[in-house]
């Protein structure tokens, strides 16, 4: 792997944009502001000293939250933007697919748009002739290529635009958020294409929010956060870190919700949930956590909890049998241990609630006290799709309680 040539080298790249802070129509005012050091704009630094290398044959993933600088980085690699500092070196013909349908003309036919778009990508008419049949066949639009693009459905336009990009015979393919194009059948075809491309050794750079796609296709990945490289290397590690950071809810909204409910909680205080097992585990590792709270008067209280799939927003494991109960005031501490051996590639949120005798809610864990658990196997091949997929459905309760203070 180390003797492979470098396809794309990003070397200490920085980029900022000038955002106007005031406008003036007066030359005198502009000159006065200039002498005072008032520029009339502020600099928004989108990328800050970004460096990494993509080797020939890599299926390279770039991930990050919206606004992190991913698309700006792709436009610099595609030579649409020029960096303020640093440089990008591209070895080979690059096909960049940053926005669906950019450069398409609705007044031209599908065939004419293929040739025009191919020319914009840097291909000669002869090269487009050689690629044309593959493009049309992949898009499944053989009977429509002589119709004007404005008569295509949106799905047909998407298929054509995507097919031009992926079937163009370039050395390096750049894709920005385009894995969900077309209907289900077309997406399956795209999946097969990406698996073939991965095996063929052609260089691909993929920007996506789909972490399962990163783990499935990529052999390397980078996480961009606030314009900086936050993580680089193994795609599973990068994807898991991205998933963990994305599950954190902003505290401001949480605090406002807590203030609204705080007055109603008068019998139970200081509910805390502590994860004793690791945040990132494999399906074979047990999940163990500790629940503590304080009851302010003699009364019955019960513990119920659920492990909720954050992506699908459904719980897959819970304990609501109210087996653990207390009848006296004072501090309470319990531990729970269970296993989820039949799931993989899943993010779970542990939600704990304290109920009263009539199942009224007395306390619930806030966001800070609701741990996140990531379950993922790293010992399976990326092409073993059945093993990579997460299980669905409800898992039978198999845990046990341990009473530390009752």
UniProtKB/TrEMBL annotation:
Residues 27-251 form the ABC transporter domain. It holds the Pfam family ABC_tran. GO terms for cellular component: membrane. The keyword Nucleotide-binding applies. One of its GO terms (molecular function) is ABC-type transporter activity. Keywords: ATP-binding, Coiled coil, Nucleotide-binding, Transport. Residues 244-271 form a coiled coil. It comes from the Bacteria. SMART domains: AAA. InterPro entries: AAA+_ATPase (IPR003593), ABC_transporter-like_ATP-bd (IPR003439), ABC_transporter-like_CS (IPR017871), ABC_transpr_TagH-like (IPR015860), Bact_Polysacc_Export_ATP-bd (IPR050683), P-loop_NTPase (IPR027417). Belongs to the ABC transporter superfamily. PANTHER family: TEICHOIC ACIDS EXPORT ATP-BINDING PROTEIN TAGH. This is Polysaccharide ABC transporter ATP-binding protein RgpD. It comes from Streptococcus varani.
